[in-house]
Design a protein that fits this description.
Largest sheet: 3 strands, antiparallel
Shape: globular
Number of helices: 4
Helix content: 55-70%
Strand order of the largest sheet: 1-3-2
Strand content: 5-15%
Order of helices and strands: HEHHEEH
Mean pLDDT: 86
Oligomer: single chain
Length: 125
């Protein structure tokens, strides 16, 4: 019976949070490489394409989009639909495509290194 806080659960959530934080810009840029999209659409595509593994909230997504915009990686435009609800659409810039390529290479190198490490560990058993 445990009387204290679940430190292993906290550590797991912390690791998951850090992995998401380190990959969310890459994921958003990748989704935008398919074409322009608005916030909710980005969230929906991320969840759909990852079977829910990359579930993010507005509170996570919008600061990322603001950073990408400030860095010149995305352009924005506002559009008001016939129902009158304005939406902010995000689109990759040329610099954003370059950043996507850089982050993709970086992530691929990291994933390859982790795969090699995990294979070595499993072979030792």
């Amino acid at each position: 019976m445990s009387t204290g806080p679940d430190k292993s659960g906290d550590a797991k959530r912390s690791i998951e949070r850090e992995l998401k934080r380190g990959s969310i810009e890459l994921a958003v840029l990748h989704v935008l490489s398919w074409g322009e999209a608005y916030g909710y659409e980005i969230v929906t595509k991320l969840m759909g394409q990852t079977n829910g593994a990359l579930e993010i909230t507005d509170g996570t997504l919008y600061p990322v989009l603001y950073r990408l915009e400030a860095a010149g990686f995305v352009d924005v435009r506002w559009e008001t639909a016939k129902r009158g609800v304005p939406r902010k659409y995000y689109q990759l810039t040329k610099a954003g495509r370059s950043e996507l390529a850089r982050l993709t290479d970086e992530w691929s190198a990291f994933a390859d290194a982790m795969t090699r490490l995990l294979r070595q560990h499993s072979e030792v058993k």
